[in-house]
Amino acid sequence: MVEIKTDAALEAMREAGRVVARALAAAQDAAAVGVSLRELDEAARAVLDEAGARSPFLGYRPSFAPTPFPAVICASVNDAIVHGIPGGYRLRDGDLVSIDCGAELDGWTGDAAVSFTVGTPRPADLELVEATRRALDAGIAAATAGNRVGDISHAVGSVVRAAGCGTPRDFGGHGIGRRMHEDPSVPNRGRPGRGFPLRHGLVLAIEPMLIAGGSDAYRTDADGWTLRTVDGSRAAHFEHTVAVTEDGPRVLTLP
């Protein structure tokens, strides 16, 4: 069932979104050559604790996962697309890092992700990050009342295809509100004019995931969580929680 949020709920979700933005910023600020992914998780966790927010990631166990997720962020490096578990891996010069984070505050949830490079970047990685950011911007721009979910999917997918990239099958955006994952699903490819109609109060997590090699295929690590590119090419991931309003799309996970 799709829940349409009241204006008061949108304001509450905006507060949760601010916490997410601060947690992502803390994790990115902590990222440097030699720093472990676990330390990035600790930086984000401190922000959630200070805000009195709960992590919707910690302990989360969807049907595909063999174990509950053990951290408050997903930290995916280089050929890892999403769902990377932040452990003892220490960042190296030139790494491409994607951080995904959520926060639940006063019963409402925000979810966002960012990709960035550490140390000296590869030009191709900068192009991939920029293409992923453009895909997110295109998806947000399409999140207007009167459109349909397919318009968002088509907007994202058009940027993915124009960049010569792939996007993993079976994974995309989603509704969000009282829980991190709600209906409707928001694929990263689709046909315009199709799908659930967008109206004031609908809140969606729009999250393009781009694979540089152009394939949509992925494989899952032995941990049961981390998704990796099959061809070893790099991947990037951006996400915002976005409310459809009569005045246009409102991004709830900005600082």
UniProtKB/TrEMBL annotation:
<feature type="binding site">
    <location>
        <position position="111"/>
    </location>
    <ligand>
        <name>a divalent metal cation 2</name>
    </ligand>
</feature>
<comment type="function">
    <text>Removes the N-terminal methionine from nascent proteins. The N-terminal methionine is often cleaved when the second residue in the primary sequence is small and uncharged (Met-Ala-, Cys, Gly, Pro, Ser, Thr, or Val). Requires deformylation of the N(alpha)-formylated initiator methionine before it can be hydrolyzed.</text>
</comment>
<feature type="binding site">
    <location>
        <position position="100"/>
    </location>
    <ligand>
        <name>a divalent metal cation 1</name>
    </ligand>
</feature>
<comment type="similarity">
    <text>Belongs to the peptidase M24A family. Methionine aminopeptidase type 1 subfamily.</text>
</comment>
<feature type="binding site">
    <location>
        <position position="83"/>
    </location>
    <ligand>
        <name>substrate</name>
    </ligand>
</feature>
<feature type="binding site">
    <location>
        <position position="207"/>
    </location>
    <ligand>
        <name>a divalent metal cation 2</name>
    </ligand>
</feature>
<keyword id="KW-0031">Aminopeptidase</keyword>
<dbReference type="Pfam" id="PF00557">
    <property type="entry name" value="Peptidase_M24"/>
</dbReference>
<keyword id="KW-0645">Protease</keyword>
<feature type="binding site">
    <location>
        <position position="174"/>
    </location>
    <ligand>
        <name>a divalent metal cation 2</name>
    </ligand>
</feature>
<dbReference type="InterPro" id="IPR000994">
    <property type="entry name" value="Pept_M24"/>
</dbReference>
<feature type="region of interest" description="Disordered">
    <location>
        <begin position="171"/>
        <end position="194"/>
    </location>
</feature>
<feature type="binding site">
    <location>
        <position position="111"/>
    </location>
    <ligand>
        <name>a divalent metal cation 1</name>
    </ligand>
</feature>
<dbReference type="GO" id="GO:0004177">
    <property type="term" value="F:aminopeptidase activity"/>
</dbReference>
<protein>
    <recommendedName>
        <fullName>Methionine aminopeptidase</fullName>
        <ecNumber>3.4.11.18</ecNumber>
    </recommendedName>
</protein>
<feature type="domain" description="Peptidase M24">
    <location>
        <begin position="11"/>
        <end position="246"/>
    </location>
</feature>
<feature type="binding site">
    <location>
        <position position="239"/>
    </location>
    <ligand>
        <name>a divalent metal cation 1</name>
    </ligand>
</feature>
<feature type="binding site">
    <location>
        <position position="239"/>
    </location>
    <ligand>
        <name>a divalent metal cation 2</name>
    </ligand>
</feature>
<dbReference type="InterPro" id="IPR036005">
    <property type="entry name" value="Creatinase/aminopeptidase-like"/>
</dbReference>
<feature type="binding site">
    <location>
        <position position="181"/>
    </location>
    <ligand>
        <name>substrate</name>
    </ligand>
</feature>
<dbReference type="InterPro" id="IPR001714">
    <property type="entry name" value="Pept_M24_MAP"/>
</dbReference>
<comment type="subunit">
    <text>Monomer.</text>
</comment>
<keyword id="KW-0378">Hydrolase</keyword>
<dbReference type="InterPro" id="IPR002467">
    <property type="entry name" value="Pept_M24A_MAP1"/>
</dbReference>
<keyword id="KW-0479">Metal-binding</keyword>
